[in-house]
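thought: fold this chain, then report.
action: predict
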Amino acid sequence: MKLIYRVISRISVALLILMAVWATAFYFIIIDEINDETDDTLEDYSEHIITRALAGEELPSVDNGTNNTYYICEVNREHAIEHEGVRYSEDMIYIESKGETEPARILKTIFRDSLNRYYELTVAIPTIEKEDLQETILSWIVTLYLILLFVIIGLNAWILYRSFKPMYSLLRWLDRFSVGKQLEPLNNDAKITEFRKLNDAVLRSARRNVEVYEQQKVFIGHASHEMQTPLAICQNRLELLVNNADVTESQLEEIIKIKHTLDHIIKLNKTLLLLTKIENDQFPDQKEIVVNDLLKKLIDDYSEVYTYQNISVSFIENAVVKVRMNDVLASVLFGNLLKNAFAHNHKDGRVEVLITSNGVEFSNTAELGELDSSQIFTRFYQGAKKEGFTGLGLTLAASICKLYGIGIRYNYKEKEHHFNLTVPKI
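observation:
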Protein backbone atom coordinates (compact mmCIF):
# COMPACT_ATOMS: atom_id res chain seq x y z
CA MET A 1 0.00 0.00 0.00
CA LYS A 2 1.26 3.48 -0.87
CA LEU A 3 2.10 5.84 1.97
CA ILE A 4 -0.50 8.40 0.93
CA TYR A 5 -3.27 5.76 0.98
CA ARG A 6 -2.13 4.48 4.38
CA VAL A 7 -2.25 8.01 5.83
CA ILE A 8 -5.68 8.74 4.32
CA SER A 9 -7.14 5.45 5.58
CA ARG A 10 -5.92 6.17 9.11
CA ILE A 11 -7.32 9.69 8.96
CA SER A 12 -10.67 8.26 7.83
CA VAL A 13 -10.80 5.80 10.74
CA ALA A 14 -9.80 8.47 13.25
CA LEU A 15 -12.43 10.83 11.81
CA LEU A 16 -15.09 8.11 12.02
CA ILE A 17 -14.34 7.49 15.71
CA LEU A 18 -14.25 11.22 16.42
CA MET A 19 -17.59 11.80 14.69
CA ALA A 20 -19.20 8.85 16.52
CA VAL A 21 -18.08 10.18 19.91
CA TRP A 22 -19.16 13.70 18.97
CA ALA A 23 -22.60 12.47 17.78
CA THR A 24 -23.18 10.54 21.01
CA ALA A 25 -22.21 13.51 23.18
CA PHE A 26 -24.28 15.88 21.02
CA TYR A 27 -27.36 13.64 21.34
CA PHE A 28 -27.19 13.48 25.14
CA ILE A 29 -26.54 17.23 25.40
CA ILE A 30 -29.60 17.98 23.21
CA ILE A 31 -31.79 15.56 25.20
CA ASP A 32 -30.62 17.08 28.49
CA GLU A 33 -31.33 20.61 27.25
CA ILE A 34 -34.79 19.62 25.99
CA ASN A 35 -35.62 17.92 29.30
CA ASP A 36 -34.42 20.96 31.23
CA GLU A 37 -36.63 23.34 29.24
CA THR A 38 -39.58 20.95 29.48
CA ASP A 39 -39.12 20.59 33.25
CA ASP A 40 -39.18 24.38 33.65
CA THR A 41 -42.47 24.50 31.74
CA LEU A 42 -43.89 21.66 33.85
CA GLU A 43 -42.93 23.44 37.07
CA ASP A 44 -44.57 26.68 35.96
CA TYR A 45 -47.70 24.87 34.84
CA SER A 46 -47.93 22.81 38.06
CA GLU A 47 -47.45 25.92 40.24
CA HIS A 48 -50.21 27.68 38.31
CA ILE A 49 -52.61 24.77 38.86
CA ILE A 50 -51.74 24.37 42.57
CA THR A 51 -52.14 28.10 43.20
CA ARG A 52 -55.59 28.16 41.63
CA ALA A 53 -56.60 24.93 43.37
CA LEU A 54 -55.62 26.27 46.81
CA ALA A 55 -57.29 29.59 46.10
CA GLY A 56 -60.53 27.86 45.17
CA GLU A 57 -60.45 29.25 41.67
CA GLU A 58 -61.61 27.44 38.59
CA LEU A 59 -58.93 25.13 37.26
CA PRO A 60 -57.82 25.29 33.61
CA SER A 61 -59.66 23.09 31.17
CA VAL A 62 -57.94 19.77 30.55
CA ASP A 63 -58.70 20.08 26.85
CA ASN A 64 -57.20 23.54 26.33
CA GLY A 65 -55.76 22.98 22.85
CA THR A 66 -52.16 22.84 24.06
CA ASN A 67 -52.01 19.04 24.39
CA ASN A 68 -50.88 19.62 28.01
CA THR A 69 -52.74 17.40 30.43
CA TYR A 70 -53.09 17.20 34.17
CA TYR A 71 -55.11 15.46 36.81
CA ILE A 72 -55.38 15.73 40.59
CA CYS A 73 -56.18 12.91 42.98
CA GLU A 74 -56.43 12.82 46.75
CA VAL A 75 -53.88 10.61 48.56
CA ASN A 76 -53.36 9.57 52.14
CA ARG A 77 -50.74 11.05 54.44
CA GLU A 78 -48.45 8.02 54.26
CA HIS A 79 -48.34 8.16 50.45
CA ALA A 80 -47.68 11.90 50.59
CA ILE A 81 -44.80 11.50 53.04
CA GLU A 82 -43.33 8.61 50.99
CA HIS A 83 -43.51 10.58 47.71
CA GLU A 84 -42.55 13.98 49.01
CA GLY A 85 -40.93 16.33 46.52
CA VAL A 86 -41.07 16.71 42.74
CA ARG A 87 -40.65 13.63 40.55
CA TYR A 88 -40.00 13.58 36.82
CA SER A 89 -40.53 10.67 34.46
CA GLU A 90 -41.19 9.87 30.83
CA ASP A 91 -44.07 7.80 29.56
CA MET A 92 -46.55 7.45 26.72
CA ILE A 93 -49.84 9.36 27.09
CA TYR A 94 -53.00 9.44 25.04
CA ILE A 95 -53.80 12.81 23.42
CA GLU A 96 -57.55 13.05 22.98
CA SER A 97 -57.40 15.88 20.47
CA LYS A 98 -55.13 13.85 18.23
CA GLY A 99 -56.55 10.46 19.05
CA GLU A 100 -53.08 8.92 19.38
CA THR A 101 -50.46 8.05 21.94
CA GLU A 102 -47.33 10.20 22.12
CA PRO A 103 -44.27 10.36 24.38
CA ALA A 104 -44.53 12.91 27.19
CA ARG A 105 -42.53 14.40 30.04
CA ILE A 106 -44.43 13.94 33.33
CA LEU A 107 -44.15 15.82 36.63
CA LYS A 108 -45.68 14.51 39.86
CA THR A 109 -45.83 16.52 43.07
CA ILE A 110 -47.71 16.50 46.40
CA PHE A 111 -49.54 19.52 47.86
CA ARG A 112 -51.82 20.04 50.92
CA ASP A 113 -54.85 22.26 51.26
CA SER A 114 -56.06 24.26 54.29
CA LEU A 115 -57.95 21.24 55.62
CA ASN A 116 -54.76 19.14 55.73
CA ARG A 117 -55.86 17.00 52.83
CA TYR A 118 -53.12 15.71 50.58
CA TYR A 119 -53.35 15.73 46.81
CA GLU A 120 -51.06 14.42 44.08
CA LEU A 121 -50.82 16.54 40.95
CA THR A 122 -49.69 14.89 37.70
CA VAL A 123 -48.80 17.20 34.81
CA ALA A 124 -47.78 15.90 31.36
CA ILE A 125 -46.43 17.76 28.37
CA PRO A 126 -45.90 16.01 25.01
CA THR A 127 -42.25 16.04 24.05
CA ILE A 128 -40.09 14.95 21.14
CA GLU A 129 -39.92 11.36 19.96
CA LYS A 130 -36.37 10.35 20.80
CA GLU A 131 -36.26 7.63 18.17
CA ASP A 132 -37.02 10.22 15.49
CA LEU A 133 -34.40 12.51 17.00
CA GLN A 134 -31.83 9.69 17.00
CA GLU A 135 -32.58 8.88 13.36
CA THR A 136 -32.37 12.56 12.40
CA ILE A 137 -29.09 13.09 14.22
CA LEU A 138 -27.69 9.84 12.80
CA SER A 139 -28.64 10.75 9.23
CA TRP A 140 -27.15 14.21 9.54
CA ILE A 141 -24.04 12.86 11.23
CA VAL A 142 -23.55 10.34 8.41
CA THR A 143 -24.07 13.07 5.83
CA LEU A 144 -21.70 15.41 7.65
CA TYR A 145 -19.15 12.62 8.03
CA LEU A 146 -19.21 11.79 4.34
CA ILE A 147 -18.89 15.45 3.35
CA LEU A 148 -16.06 16.01 5.81
CA LEU A 149 -14.42 12.75 4.78
CA PHE A 150 -14.34 13.64 1.08
CA VAL A 151 -13.20 17.19 1.81
CA ILE A 152 -10.49 16.06 4.23
CA ILE A 153 -9.34 13.24 1.95
CA GLY A 154 -9.13 15.65 -0.96
CA LEU A 155 -7.23 18.24 1.06
CA ASN A 156 -4.93 15.66 2.64
CA ALA A 157 -4.26 13.96 -0.70
CA TRP A 158 -3.31 17.31 -2.22
CA ILE A 159 -1.23 18.39 0.80
CA LEU A 160 0.49 15.01 1.13
CA TYR A 161 1.21 14.80 -2.58
CA ARG A 162 2.72 18.28 -2.53
CA SER A 163 4.66 17.53 0.65
CA PHE A 164 5.95 14.14 -0.53
CA LYS A 165 6.73 15.28 -4.08
CA PRO A 166 10.51 15.23 -3.38
CA MET A 167 10.23 11.66 -2.11
CA TYR A 168 8.39 10.53 -5.24
CA SER A 169 11.06 12.21 -7.39
CA LEU A 170 13.71 10.35 -5.41
CA LEU A 171 11.88 7.04 -5.88
CA ARG A 172 11.63 7.61 -9.65
CA TRP A 173 15.35 8.37 -9.72
CA LEU A 174 16.07 5.16 -7.79
CA ASP A 175 13.92 3.17 -10.24
CA ARG A 176 16.09 4.44 -13.10
CA PHE A 177 19.33 3.92 -11.19
CA SER A 178 21.31 0.82 -12.11
CA VAL A 179 24.82 -0.14 -11.10
CA GLY A 180 26.98 -0.29 -14.19
CA LYS A 181 25.23 2.59 -15.96
CA GLN A 182 26.10 6.26 -15.88
CA LEU A 183 24.80 7.93 -12.73
CA GLU A 184 22.09 10.45 -13.61
CA PRO A 185 22.06 13.80 -11.81
CA LEU A 186 19.53 13.98 -8.98
CA ASN A 187 17.50 17.12 -9.70
CA ASN A 188 15.34 17.13 -6.60
CA ASP A 189 15.01 20.57 -5.05
CA ALA A 190 13.59 19.70 -1.63
CA LYS A 191 12.81 22.50 0.82
CA ILE A 192 12.15 20.06 3.65
CA THR A 193 15.24 19.33 5.76
CA GLU A 194 14.53 15.61 6.13
CA PHE A 195 14.12 15.13 2.38
CA ARG A 196 17.33 17.05 1.66
CA LYS A 197 19.21 14.77 4.06
CA LEU A 198 17.60 11.72 2.46
CA ASN A 199 18.62 12.94 -1.02
CA ASP A 200 22.21 13.42 0.12
CA ALA A 201 22.36 10.01 1.82
CA VAL A 202 20.92 8.18 -1.21
CA LEU A 203 23.20 10.03 -3.63
CA ARG A 204 26.29 9.23 -1.54
CA SER A 205 25.29 5.59 -1.33
CA ALA A 206 24.64 5.38 -5.09
CA ARG A 207 27.99 6.97 -5.92
CA ARG A 208 29.76 4.61 -3.54
CA ASN A 209 28.05 1.60 -5.12
CA VAL A 210 29.05 2.77 -8.61
CA GLU A 211 32.65 3.30 -7.49
CA VAL A 212 32.87 -0.12 -5.84
CA TYR A 213 31.29 -1.76 -8.88
CA GLU A 214 33.74 -0.07 -11.24
CA GLN A 215 36.65 -1.03 -9.02
CA GLN A 216 35.51 -4.64 -8.97
CA LYS A 217 35.13 -4.71 -12.75
CA VAL A 218 38.60 -3.25 -13.24
CA PHE A 219 40.09 -5.65 -10.72
CA ILE A 220 38.47 -8.72 -12.28
CA GLY A 221 39.48 -7.62 -15.76
CA HIS A 222 43.07 -6.92 -14.79
CA ALA A 223 43.35 -10.04 -12.68
CA SER A 224 41.93 -12.26 -15.43
CA HIS A 225 44.17 -10.66 -18.02
CA GLU A 226 47.31 -10.97 -15.88
CA MET A 227 46.53 -14.60 -15.07
CA GLN A 228 46.37 -15.65 -18.71
CA THR A 229 50.13 -15.73 -19.28
CA PRO A 230 51.17 -17.73 -16.16
CA LEU A 231 48.28 -20.12 -16.71
CA ALA A 232 49.37 -20.71 -20.31
CA ILE A 233 52.96 -21.29 -19.13
CA CYS A 234 51.78 -23.83 -16.54
CA GLN A 235 49.69 -25.60 -19.14
CA ASN A 236 52.68 -25.85 -21.54
CA ARG A 237 54.95 -27.19 -18.83
CA LEU A 238 52.43 -29.85 -17.88
CA GLU A 239 52.20 -30.88 -21.51
CA LEU A 240 55.99 -31.18 -21.59
CA LEU A 241 55.90 -33.36 -18.48
CA VAL A 242 53.26 -35.59 -20.06
CA ASN A 243 55.55 -36.15 -23.05
CA ASN A 244 58.59 -36.79 -20.85
CA ALA A 245 59.67 -40.42 -21.04
CA ASP A 246 61.04 -40.38 -17.49
CA VAL A 247 57.62 -39.78 -15.95
CA THR A 248 56.16 -42.84 -14.24
CA GLU A 249 52.59 -44.01 -14.76
CA SER A 250 51.44 -42.84 -11.31
CA GLN A 251 53.07 -39.44 -11.85
CA LEU A 252 51.41 -39.23 -15.25
CA GLU A 253 47.99 -39.78 -13.69
CA GLU A 254 48.57 -36.98 -11.20
CA ILE A 255 49.85 -34.67 -13.95
CA ILE A 256 46.72 -35.34 -16.01
CA LYS A 257 44.51 -34.55 -12.98
CA ILE A 258 46.42 -31.31 -12.45
CA LYS A 259 46.04 -30.48 -16.14
CA HIS A 260 42.26 -31.00 -15.96
CA THR A 261 42.07 -28.68 -12.97
CA LEU A 262 44.24 -26.13 -14.74
CA ASP A 263 42.05 -26.33 -17.88
CA HIS A 264 39.02 -25.59 -15.70
CA ILE A 265 40.79 -22.55 -14.18
CA ILE A 266 41.78 -21.30 -17.64
CA LYS A 267 38.19 -21.69 -18.84
CA LEU A 268 36.89 -19.88 -15.75
CA ASN A 269 39.42 -17.09 -16.24
CA LYS A 270 38.44 -16.60 -19.88
CA THR A 271 34.74 -16.49 -18.97
CA LEU A 272 35.34 -13.89 -16.25
CA LEU A 273 37.39 -11.81 -18.66
CA LEU A 274 34.61 -12.04 -21.25
CA LEU A 275 32.02 -10.99 -18.63
CA THR A 276 34.13 -7.98 -17.71
CA LYS A 277 34.47 -6.96 -21.36
CA ILE A 278 30.70 -7.24 -21.83
CA GLU A 279 30.02 -5.12 -18.74
CA ASN A 280 32.58 -2.57 -19.94
CA ASP A 281 30.83 -2.47 -23.34
CA GLN A 282 33.98 -3.53 -25.22
CA PHE A 283 32.07 -5.14 -28.09
CA PRO A 284 30.91 -2.08 -30.04
CA ASP A 285 30.80 -3.77 -33.47
CA GLN A 286 27.32 -4.91 -34.41
CA LYS A 287 25.73 -6.42 -37.45
CA GLU A 288 22.48 -8.07 -38.44
CA ILE A 289 22.50 -11.78 -37.62
CA VAL A 290 20.00 -14.35 -38.83
CA VAL A 291 19.41 -16.45 -35.72
CA ASN A 292 18.04 -19.38 -37.75
CA ASP A 293 21.31 -19.83 -39.67
CA LEU A 294 23.45 -19.46 -36.54
CA LEU A 295 21.43 -22.07 -34.64
CA LYS A 296 21.58 -24.58 -37.52
CA LYS A 297 25.38 -24.46 -37.44
CA LEU A 298 25.53 -24.71 -33.63
CA ILE A 299 23.07 -27.64 -33.54
CA ASP A 300 25.20 -29.57 -36.04
CA ASP A 301 28.34 -28.96 -33.96
CA TYR A 302 26.82 -30.00 -30.61
CA SER A 303 24.96 -32.98 -32.12
CA GLU A 304 28.34 -34.40 -33.19
CA VAL A 305 29.94 -33.69 -29.77
CA TYR A 306 27.12 -35.35 -27.81
CA THR A 307 26.34 -38.15 -30.26
CA TYR A 308 27.33 -40.73 -27.63
CA GLN A 309 24.25 -39.75 -25.56
CA ASN A 310 21.86 -40.49 -28.42
CA ILE A 311 19.96 -37.21 -27.86
CA SER A 312 17.23 -36.44 -30.40
CA VAL A 313 17.08 -32.85 -31.65
CA SER A 314 14.03 -31.02 -33.00
CA PHE A 315 14.58 -27.71 -34.79
CA ILE A 316 11.26 -25.99 -35.54
CA GLU A 317 11.23 -22.78 -37.59
CA ASN A 318 7.93 -20.93 -37.51
CA ALA A 319 9.54 -17.62 -38.42
CA VAL A 320 12.84 -16.00 -39.37
CA VAL A 321 14.37 -14.14 -36.43
CA LYS A 322 17.00 -11.48 -36.90
CA VAL A 323 18.94 -9.64 -34.25
CA ARG A 324 21.45 -6.80 -34.37
CA MET A 325 24.40 -7.51 -32.10
CA ASN A 326 28.07 -8.42 -31.99
CA ASP A 327 28.61 -11.72 -33.84
CA VAL A 328 30.99 -13.08 -31.16
CA LEU A 329 28.50 -12.42 -28.40
CA ALA A 330 25.69 -13.89 -30.51
CA SER A 331 27.65 -17.13 -30.81
CA VAL A 332 28.34 -17.10 -27.07
CA LEU A 333 24.68 -16.44 -26.15
CA PHE A 334 23.01 -19.03 -28.36
CA GLY A 335 25.93 -21.46 -28.01
CA ASN A 336 25.76 -21.43 -24.20
CA LEU A 337 22.01 -22.05 -24.12
CA LEU A 338 22.27 -24.84 -26.67
CA LYS A 339 25.27 -26.40 -24.92
CA ASN A 340 23.34 -26.38 -21.62
CA ALA A 341 20.45 -28.17 -23.34
CA PHE A 342 22.82 -30.96 -24.41
CA ALA A 343 25.08 -31.07 -21.35
CA HIS A 344 22.31 -31.02 -18.71
CA ASN A 345 20.42 -33.83 -20.39
CA HIS A 346 20.37 -37.59 -20.03
CA LYS A 347 21.00 -40.45 -22.38
CA ASP A 348 18.26 -40.91 -24.99
CA GLY A 349 16.89 -37.50 -24.02
CA ARG A 350 15.68 -34.79 -26.32
CA VAL A 351 16.38 -31.17 -27.22
CA GLU A 352 13.93 -28.87 -28.94
CA VAL A 353 14.69 -25.46 -30.42
CA LEU A 354 11.58 -23.52 -31.41
CA ILE A 355 11.82 -20.27 -33.38
CA THR A 356 8.76 -18.03 -33.42
CA SER A 357 8.13 -14.44 -34.40
CA ASN A 358 8.75 -13.40 -30.78
CA GLY A 359 12.06 -15.17 -30.28
CA VAL A 360 13.60 -18.55 -29.50
CA GLU A 361 12.74 -21.25 -26.96
CA PHE A 362 15.25 -23.91 -25.86
CA SER A 363 13.81 -26.95 -24.08
CA ASN A 364 15.42 -30.19 -23.00
CA THR A 365 14.67 -33.19 -20.84
CA ALA A 366 15.99 -32.62 -17.32
CA GLU A 367 18.77 -34.72 -15.88
CA LEU A 368 18.56 -33.50 -12.25
CA GLY A 369 15.19 -31.74 -11.89
CA GLU A 370 14.12 -28.11 -11.56
CA LEU A 371 16.58 -25.25 -11.04
CA ASP A 372 16.12 -22.33 -8.67
CA SER A 373 14.60 -19.64 -10.92
CA SER A 374 15.57 -16.89 -8.43
CA GLN A 375 19.27 -17.86 -8.52
CA ILE A 376 19.76 -19.39 -11.94
CA PHE A 377 21.29 -16.30 -13.56
CA THR A 378 23.61 -15.43 -10.65
CA ARG A 379 27.33 -16.14 -10.87
CA PHE A 380 28.57 -19.62 -9.98
CA TYR A 381 25.07 -21.05 -9.48
CA GLN A 382 25.00 -24.59 -10.86
CA GLY A 383 22.17 -26.32 -9.01
CA ALA A 384 23.55 -29.82 -8.56
CA LYS A 385 27.22 -29.29 -9.45
CA LYS A 386 28.28 -30.80 -12.76
CA GLU A 387 31.94 -31.51 -13.47
CA GLY A 388 33.60 -29.37 -16.09
CA PHE A 389 31.25 -26.39 -15.78
CA THR A 390 32.15 -23.03 -14.28
CA GLY A 391 28.67 -21.90 -13.25
CA LEU A 392 29.02 -18.75 -15.36
CA GLY A 393 27.33 -19.84 -18.60
CA LEU A 394 23.83 -18.58 -17.77
CA THR A 395 25.26 -15.47 -16.09
CA LEU A 396 27.11 -14.76 -19.32
CA ALA A 397 23.91 -15.31 -21.34
CA ALA A 398 21.95 -12.99 -19.03
CA SER A 399 24.61 -10.25 -19.32
CA ILE A 400 24.52 -10.43 -23.12
CA CYS A 401 20.71 -10.32 -23.11
CA LYS A 402 20.75 -7.26 -20.84
CA LEU A 403 23.27 -5.53 -23.13
CA TYR A 404 21.04 -5.92 -26.20
CA GLY A 405 17.61 -5.69 -24.58
CA ILE A 406 16.79 -9.37 -25.11
CA GLY A 407 14.39 -10.87 -22.57
CA ILE A 408 15.39 -14.20 -21.01
CA ARG A 409 13.10 -16.34 -18.84
CA TYR A 410 13.36 -19.82 -17.31
CA ASN A 411 10.58 -22.22 -16.36
CA TYR A 412 10.26 -25.92 -15.63
CA LYS A 413 7.32 -28.02 -16.74
CA GLU A 414 6.68 -31.67 -17.52
CA LYS A 415 10.22 -32.60 -16.35
CA GLU A 416 11.81 -30.28 -18.92
CA HIS A 417 13.90 -27.11 -18.71
CA HIS A 418 12.62 -24.23 -20.85
CA PHE A 419 14.61 -21.09 -21.67
CA ASN A 420 12.73 -18.40 -23.61
CA LEU A 421 14.47 -15.55 -25.40
CA THR A 422 12.33 -12.60 -26.45
CA VAL A 423 14.20 -10.89 -29.27
CA PRO A 424 13.37 -7.22 -30.04
CA LYS A 425 12.30 -6.39 -33.59
CA ILE A 426 14.79 -4.66 -35.89
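thought: worth noting. The first strand starts at residue 69 and ends at 75.
final: C-alpha coordinates above.
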